[in-house]
Amino acid sequence: MLSKAYHPDFHTDKSEAEKMQILQLSSFNNTAFKTLKNPDSRFKYILLMHGVDFEESKQSLPQTFLMEMMDFNEKLMDVQMEGNKNGLSALINELKEIEESLFTGVSNIIKEYKKEKISNKDLEQLKEYFFKRKYLLRIRENLNKFGLA
């Protein structure tokens, strides 16, 4: 809706100042759309809106999650060393299931999101999800780097 209202092509007859303002609004609208369209960007934006600190050195993930990831990484190293393509495929599927399970845990918070009604507990859940997701993305990047995912 706003993309059409602020699209520069529909304002060619305006003054240069108005065109510049429309261009800025169009750019802002495009950035907002990209942010909200991408779930990871949307989570980060919501957390930033609520003043959540993102300094990674201060973040700690739950011990259970870290242990699961240590086990996963060990299995991944074994599969890579053995050259076991079936085992690798199974690990890729396992990673996908972990990612889906994490998202399921926070999807209702996003579906029901209202800025003024979100609880601190929900914000903590989103923050934990965000950092777990970041951790999993690094694993996926490593898989991609080796042409495995």
- Please give the alpha-carbon distance between the first and last residues: 37 Å
Low-confidence stretches: none
Instruction: Report the major sheet.
Output: none
**Which structural class do the helices and strands define?**
mainly alpha
Q: What string gives the helices and strands in order?
A: HHHHHH
**Integer-rounded radius of gyration:** 21 Å
Q: What integer is the average pLDDT? A: 82
What key attributes describe this structure?
149 residues, mainly alpha, 6 helices
Brief synopsis:
It contains 6 helices and no strands.
Describe the structure.
The protein has 149 residues and is mostly helical. It has a domain of 89 residues. It is 74% helix and 0% strand. The chain is built from 6 helices and no strands. Helix 2 packs across helix 3 and helix 4 packs antiparallel against helix 5. The mean pLDDT is 82.
